[in-house]
Amino acid sequence: MAHITVLKDEAVAALNAERAGIIVDCTYGSGGHSAAILARLPEQGRLVSLDVDQTALEAHPATDPRHTLVCANFRDLRETLAAHNIEKVDGVVADLGWRSEQFQASNKGFSFSAKEPLVMTFGDPETHLFTAHEVVNEWDEANLADIIYGYGEERAARRIARAIVAAREVAPIETAAQLAEIVAGAVPTFRRRQGIHPATKTFQAIRIAVNDELGALNALLADGFALLAPGGRLAIITFHSLEDRLVKQAFKGYAHDQLGVLVHKKPITPSTAEVAKNPRARSAKLRIIEKL
Questions:
Q1: Looking at the whole model, is its pTM more than 0.85?
Q2: Which of 46, 150, 177, 210 has the most neighbouring CB atoms within 10 Å?
Q3: Residue 201 belongs to a domain with what CATH number?
Q4: Residue 278: CATH number of its domain
Q5: Are 137 and 190 found together in one domain?
Q6: What is the C-alpha separation between 198 and 188, in angstroms, rounded?
Q7: Are 144 and 236 members of one domain?
Q8: Is the dihedral of CA 268, 86, 78, 75 positive or negative?
């Protein structure tokens, strides 16, 4: 299934790219937002696109002289831009969702049905403190339950953690498909009949822990706003409540301190037509703040 960029027009319109000098796309992915930005960017403008996954950059190379691709985590935005002699920017956008390609033959265990090793790192596993395999097979039951509940907001966290520990005592849990089956067997029966896969929240929690996604988002919220020139905008698309809560609180704080102004009081969500075309967009929320 080809990736469909979520809230592309809304996010790009929010950046006022046609009047911008420098814009940063923090999550290049399949290049959807970047392509739309380039279509609006002035001839003298510049776009810098980041992605922690080198395969994304290789799959969609830059073809415009105004466009620079960088393999980097957006948590290192300040250092990355400094390395390219950029001190201030006019717009920053981040789409915290998934590329479809990350589910399809990633060989990192992101998909529930994949007989792939449990890795779940966005970039090179060697740059991470631990992988999903270590979380599942080495962390104690209490820590497992805490992250599944805290990062996945999974009510059956303790039952799932108990089942994971029991399973690994028999044999190590090696693949995503194995883990998904264990989780599905641990949740209440009615949950297995619902539309969402019963392992969704557990996989989300482990992935967040492995990649320190919330820590990276907090760094982006601080540095992304600090790097904006007056009148510049920071636009972030989230897909679950933990992310959206962090963005909402940070933007509210900037507005309260009279450092920025909310472009919209409520988040922008996908239209009915967009959700019909791309069901993965249904939980997306776009929040935008402008620096004063």
A1: yes
A2: 210
A3: 1.10.150.170
A4: 3.40.50.150
A5: yes
A6: 9
A7: no
A8: positive
Residue 72, both tokens: 């980097």
Sequence-distant (6+) residues with CB within 8 A of 88 are 22, 227, 228, 229, 232
Residue 100: is its pLDDT beyond 90? no
pLDDT score at 245: 97
What does the pLDDT look like over 60-89, one tens digit per residue?
A: 999 999 999 999 999 999 999 999 999 999
Q: In what order do the strands lie in the sheet with 285-291?
A: 67-71, 46-51, 22-25, 89-95, 228-238, 285-291, 260-262
Over the Cα atoms of the chain, what is R_g?
Answer: 20
Confirm whether 1 is domain-assigned: no
Closest by alpha carbon to 109, among 53, 7, 158, 177? Answer: 177
Which of 167, 188, 211 delimits the end of a domain? 211
Q: For the chain, what is the mean pLDDT?
A: 94
Domain count, the chain: 2
